[in-house]
Amino acid sequence: MRRFLEVVGQGAATQTPDRLDLHVSVSLVEPDVGSALTRLAHQVTALGAALRAEGLADADLRTTSSNLSEEYAGSDPTGRPVPAGFRASQDLLVRLGDPEAASAVVAAAVAAVGNDFRLGHLSWTVADESALTDLAREAAFADARAKAAKLAALAGADLGRLLRVSEGAGFGGGVPRLMAAKADSSFAAERGENRVEVGLSTRWELA
């Protein structure tokens, strides 16, 4: 009967992210639905024009959601909600191939739509993670081989050929931190590092 052992190798690689995604929105309140939608369309158009003036292309801007809802200003003495108009909003994903332009982009957005501008969360990414994944995969295989060789030695055997290998799901991640927000609309965000991890399940022959 052929003897074998199975080990799991883990590998990781990191890289400074080179792309920044800003999740922004335009949000406003008007007395009636028609006014809210009309003003929203105007402000979103103004925002898009301002962002394109900063060098962003159509492919860098994506509407992710729109919303229209009634707004309330507290309750009356009987507990009934007091209508205050209608809130219209639209969320956009702004993809920056040059993260250093973030401060100028935000300043241009604020100048275009004023207090209707909202800055939500931001996320750092690596434009092409294939090279990073390859490095993590190589590290995982080296880890698996080293573990297998050590276990074979402990078992009083020689490590033979690789019989099987399968890859688990890798993942990437990076946690951006908003460092400052000032009246002039400038801000700075720490890039940190994006990390990709790969797991390999391997089976080795024992000689």
What layout of secondary structure does this protein have?
Blueprint lengths: L3 E12 L3 E12 L2 H21 L7 E15 L5 E16 L5 H12 L3 E9 L4 H25 L4 E9 L3 E3 L3 E2 L10 E2 L3 E13 L1
Antiparallel strand pairs: 1-10, 2-4, 2-5, 3-4, 6-10, 7-10, 8-9
Helix pairs in contact: 1-2
Overall description:
Helix content is 28%, strand content 45%. The protein has 207 residues and is of the alpha+beta class. The strands form 3 sheets. Strands 1, 6, 7 and 10 form a 4-stranded antiparallel beta sheet that branches. Strands 3-4-2-5 form a 4-stranded antiparallel beta sheet, with helices on one face.
End-to-end separation in angstroms reads 12 Å
Gyration radius, to the nearest Å? 26 Å
Low confidence ranges = 170-185
Count of DSSP H/I helices: 3
Structural class per helix/strand content? alpha+beta
Count of strand segments:
10
Proportion of helical residues? 25-40%
Main sheet overview? 4 strands, antiparallel
Tag the structure with descriptive keywords.
single chain, 207 residues, alpha+beta, four-stranded antiparallel sheet, 3 helices, 10 strands, 28% helix, 45% strand, elongated
